[in-house]
Amino acid sequence: MARSTKADKARQLNAAYRLLERNTELPEAAQRLSQEFDLSLRQAYRYLEQAAKLDRPVEVQQASVAITLKLPPSTIRILHWYAKRTGLTLGEIVTRALTHFLSALRRHG
What we know:
Elements: H1 6-21, H2 26-37, H3 41-52, H4 73-86, H5 90-107
Helix pairs in contact: 1-2, 1-3, 2-3
């Protein structure tokens, strides 16, 4: 059986959240999650336990693809410093920066 991706886990957690939101009884909710996502009942209960602590559904992230970038050493030092300071990964920092940059380009044509 293949391991779940982060996106899979987010979808399963959100399904558990929706079941709890509809006041589905725990045994029935666990059974539904187990069948829908091919989970053990134990794992389904874990998702329900985690979902019970949520205020809202979690965001489902897109799968990422590795790329190679060549950056100046000074930029890399700043990226590493910022990653250490914020706890974000280099990929998350670059993704956020590029998303911001590209959305600004779209707004300004």
